[in-house]
Amino acid sequence: MSRQERVYVIGAGGHAKVVLALLRELGYVVAAVFDDDAACWDTSLCGIPVVGCVDSIRQHPPLPTVIAVGDNRARAAIAARLDLPWLSAVHPRASVDPSVQLGPGVVVFAGAVVQPDCRLGAHAIVNTSASVDHDCQVGDFVHLAPGVHLAGEVSVGEGALVGIGASVTPGVRIGRWTVVGAGAVVPGDLPELVVAAGIPARVRRAVQELPAPEAGEGGAIAAAGGRGQEPRRAEPQEPQASEPPRIYLSPPHMGSRERELLLEAFDSNWIAPLGPHVDAFEREFADKVGAAHAVALSSGTAALHLALQLLNVGLGDRVATSTLTFAASANAIRYVGAEPVFIDSDERSWNMDPQLLAEELEAGVQRGKPLKAVLAVDILGQCADFEAIQPLCRFYDVPLIEDAAEALGATYRGRPAGSFGQIGCFSFNGNKIITTSGGGMLVTARRDWANHARHLATQARDPAPHYEHSEIGYNYRMSNLLAAIGRGQLQMLDERVRRRREIFRFYQQALADLPEITFMSEPQACRSTRWLTCILVDGTAGQVGGRATTREDLRLALARENIESRPVWKPMHLQPVFAGCPVAGGQVSERLFRDGLCLPSGSSLCAADLDRVVAVIRAAFKRPRREAVKPSLAQTVPARGST
Ligand SMILES: *Cc1c(COP(=O)(O)O)cnc(C)c1O
After folding, report:
1. Nearest atom within ligand 1 for CA of residue 406
2. CB-based burial label for 633 (10 Å; 0-12, 13-18, 19+)
3. Which residues' Cβ are closer than 6 Å to ligand 1?
């Protein structure tokens, strides 16, 4: 069923939501929404970015477009000023006879019935469960509201609105731009430009505003080809097993600013690594995370690799890192020939347990081979316990690297993540809270280190007219194009953090009555970004007989509904590639891996997506929806203990 054809939608109001749902159902991919209300730019509607005003659509490559604006005048005005390939859309559960002529831009919603030999004019709306009997003529820009019934041979003039639940008897003619009130019964003709209501419907007054100039001139339906797309004949709808749209764990969330900056960079022809956007991104990023210097790189992994190089970590050295992390943290230690020493998580923050780190630091000194560095990871949006880790590193005189790849935007005692070590590392990979598709940043207080990192990242070219090298370099710099995207993303960071925390609170409230589920806690010193909402599943809690539902059962239940979720990181000491590496503790991270699940948490997810996730989880634990206490995203009252 999947057409995967890209389309645009104009309008970001309530009517547009219904249109988006319809387009999804038909397998279209809505590339962008346009609306003149500046307040909704850079937000998203059901996960689709609202990228700018209606007229800005001209600057985008033309795609089939639907005007999803319920108001007839507004729809007509937009159609009059834009020349686009208008898309008609018929819901798979509407019944439209194959003989019906559809004008461009017509939308027919679920449950509607349109009988033989009717004509639906350009941009007409046949709303949910409306019925249109044989031989009706429905003009351009008409809106038949939900539950309207037109008997046979009715004619509805251009721009007329027939209100919800109104009925029109056979052969009646309704004039242009006339409004029929909700629930009215129309037994005889109505003139143009009046408001009529009641049973039987009587003319109450004239329509106040005049219709939009030129609106609908040229009756697009009659002229074959109309403007842009050909009027489509309704095709018989095949019964479709419609799979619900995929909900991703943490998809990229782009806005219009990123697009503008990217195009500007493109037009400037600074396509190379380096360039003005790289410099600006580094400055803006350093300010944001409270660092003196920032170096934009091709990935977070590159940042970790260079951080270890800057600290002269090399062959045979030992570096302590969290066992509960993404492999990149430990891989970087291997790149320089060093050995990772894995430290278990503490129960509360899930990050490196400072007590175990202390024991490892002391053991190293006793053994006569001190640790060369500590690489502390801020996992899943939350800072490690730096109040304990920093003094330990100072006492043992071991440098601290902070892998803040998952925690950009988080704070610890009010200080930004990434500012706690001698070097901080960030990632802009596609699943992170902000993204440049791929990229990373190294931050440090030391100018000489920042310059050395830049040197190493650009193939370690010495200053000379020819290519001169005195050490081994890397090709690790970020491209100017991607830095442009990063600048736009960075501007949205605070908003993205706010939204991710809101999503966390939503899940917390919606699942509060399930004893099987607990949430990753937020220690008092931390303000997590809730990059990913993580739960622990204990299927035996509150269970009465039968087999307990496990984390994996839950993951599979979500997957069956086309919802992506993922187990919490598998600890590094359990990974085949790191078998044999030393590990301190391990039981805590093993349990977090066994029971931990990351839920869809992207800032572009909409309320309907989250409702779907919650419904599947509740069903997996045989807990029906609690309609009465269902929390709403609009209500931003923080849940207990999560401000
Ligand atoms: C994503 C991530 C990285 C690696 O970043 P890339 O940009 O993908 O190379 C490193 N450490 C942690 C903890 C991460 O989550």
Report:
1. 15
2. middle
3. 299-301, 325-326, 328-329, 377, 403, 405-406, 427, 429, 440
Mutate to test the pocket of ligand 1, among 299, 324, 326 (most ligand atoms within 8 A of CB): 326
Residues paired with 377 in a beta bridge: 403
Q: Is 327 domain-assigned?
A: yes
Q: Is the pTM of this model over 0.85?
A: no
- Tokens found for residue 286: 């350093």
- What are the tens digits of pLDDT across the range 309-346? 999 999 999 999 999 999 999 999 999 999 999 999 99
Name the average pLDDT for the chain. Answer: 89
Taking 50 as the threshold, does the pLDDT of residue 158 lie above it? Answer: yes
Q: What's the pLDDT band for 237 if we cut at 50, 70, 90?
A: very low
Nearest residue (by CA) to ligand 1, atom 10, is: 328
Contact predicate 528/382, CB 8 Å: yes
**Residue 46: which CATH number?**
3.40.50.20
Q: Which residue has the higher pLDDT, 196 or 52?
A: 196
Query: The domain containing residue 548 runs over which residues?
Result: 493-620
Q: Rounded distance, CA 338 to CA 319, Å?
A: 7
Residue nearest atom 6 of ligand 1, based on CA coordinates = 300
- Same domain, yes or no, for 426 and 516? no
User: Does 336 share its domain with 469?
Assistant: yes
Residue that finishes a domain, picked among 81, 113, 128: 81
One-letter amino acid at 257 equals R
Same-domain status, 602 and 467: no
Question: Taking 90 as the threshold, does the pLDDT of residue 215 lie above it?
Answer: no
192 within some domain: no
Give the lowest-confidence range in 384-393, 397-406, 513-522, 618-627.
618-627
Residues 484 and 497 in one domain: no
Q: Looking at the domain assignment, is residue 119 inside a domain?
A: no
Domain assignment present for 505: yes
For the record, the structure tokens of 35 come out as 């609306």
Residue to mutate, 325, 406, 433, ligand 1, most ligand atoms under 8 Å from C-beta: 406
Residues 481 and 515 in one domain: no
Domain boundary among 470, 491, 512: 491
What's the structural domain count of the chain?
3
Task: Determine the residue type at 52.
Answer: G
Could you give the dihedral angle defined by the CA atoms of residues 90, 92, 97 and 98, in that order, rounded to the nearest 10 degrees? 80
Separation of first and last alpha carbons in the chain: 44
Q: For residue 382, report the distance from its CA to the centre of ligand 1, in Å.
A: 14
| The residue count for the chain | 643
Q: pLDDT tens-digit profile of 452-511? A: 999 999 999 999 999 999 999 999 999 999 999 999 999 999 999 999 999 999 999 999
